[in-house]
Structures are given as structure tokens and as C-alpha cells.
Amino acid sequence: MIDPSSTILLIDAGNTRAKFGWVELGDGTRESRAHALDYGHIDSLGPRLDTLGVRPRRILATNVAGPGVGRDLEAACQQHFGLPVQWLDGRHGRDLLHNRYRDAGQLGADRWIGLLGLLNRVRKRPDWNRGAPMLLATFGTATTLDTLLLRTEDGMQRAHFLGGLILPGPVLMARALADHTAHLPFAEGEPTDYPVDTHDAISSGIAAAQAGALLRQWRNGLQAAAGQATQVFVSGGGWPLVQPEVEHALARAQDDLGLRPLAAVHLANPVLDGLAYLARQPGAGGPAD
Fold first, then answer.
1. Quick one: pLDDT at residue 102?
2. Whether residue 110 lies in the annotated active site
3. Which residues, in sequence order, are CB contacts of 207 under 8 Å at separation 6+?
């Protein structure tokens, strides 16, 4: 039974669609399956939540889809629930995670909130508390590769976001070749070692580029942590397109260095995880000082 007095609606407005879920502060439970919302049907959010028996008391959200989507979501939530949307971004959770970005305002809200979700997942792991790096690879419209590390400074341990890479996601890479060359198709091939078909050649090149970027950051994590193995976490709709290549490359790199095999761990919704983590904090929704 959903308790409306303690229900917080969570919305992740991404580049192509929104995902939503909720968290119950009364007993700490969380809706484990994210629900997708196309931007052409934002006005259906309220009726869908009614069908699911959800009547939130607060709404926490993050938005990288632009101000128009934000306004539409605000209007839908105000009309149906009479509630404002509290938008969370890089100003929130800074007491939980140190942001080393030179200009914290440039860091995408989804990257930051997703990293907080990862932090909540790993903060009790023995390897994290021994100083092993955690790498979050999100394969979406863009691919982002971000690393967390627990460091001791002035006798105090604190989680640090070291920084990360941004590159075109797998589908965007394929679309760029199709749109900006005269004869190359939008590839729907299979990655192979030695492609003999144009579709396979493009798909193999994309997968190799994505895996190579991930391995770069994985190796950087080894150096940052004095040889402790980096645990890789993966997410995003583009993951299935590069999964075999990434898993093979990671396993081979670990074997070459004599490291214990550590398989990549799939995270379904790190941004919603991060919103739920922030929702449980005292004074949730307010920026850190």
C-alpha cells in the first residue's frame, strides 16, 4: 500500500524521454521499475500515476532535456497534484560527494545525480572503503565515463568525483556517419574482429571506440588508486550495442595485468537512484551550503 503522506515522486528528464519512479520515506522502500514517459505525452503523467496508486507529497526531478520540457513537467505536476517540481542539479549533495570539476555548473545534472546514485550503492562495499575506484559508464545519446574514489585528506575520508569523459553515444556515432557521408549507411551490423561487411565494419568501429574509451578510464583508475582494480558499472540504452566488445576488452585487460576478474555491473536507473538517495537526506531538495 502506497502511503501518500510519505511518497516522493522522482523524475529523470533525459535527452530523449523521461523516466519516473518514487520512494517511500515511511519505510524506505523504492519503486524498483522505472516507468518511461515520452515528451509528446507529458500530460499523461498524472493519470498514469493515478492508475498506479501514487499520490506524491513532493516531486524531485532532474532535467537535461531543456527548459521547454521542464515547463511542461511543471505544468503537468501543478495541474494534477498541485505541487511544484524541485529541480536538483550539481548544487545538491555536495556534502556527500566532492566535485573536482573546475566549473561545477558545467557538469550535467544527470551525470552528477547518477554519480550520487552510484555512491549510495557502493558506500558500504569493502573494496570502496579500501580505496578502489568506481567507474560509471553511461551509454546514452552521449557516453559518459566518470570515476569516483574514496580519499583520505587531513585524516578524514571523503568521496571524490575525479572527473570523466564525454563522447558521442553508440547510436549518435552511427547516425553521424550516415548523415555526413555520401555512401555509408546507418549501421545495424554485428561487431567482429575483422569485419567484411560495411554494416559490421561500422558497428565494430563504434564498439571498439566505446570500449577503448572505457579502458582508458579503467586504467587511469588503477593509477589513481595505486593498482587497486577499478569496478565498472554500466547503464544506458546503448549498452547492449557495445556490451560484448566492452566485456571482452575488460576481461582481456584484467587477464593481461594478472588481476582478479571483475565483471561490469549493470545499473538500471542510476539517476533515479541518486534522486532517491537525496530524497532520504535531511532537508532533501535544498542545495548544500
1. 86
2. yes
3. 170, 191, 241, 242, 244, 245, 246
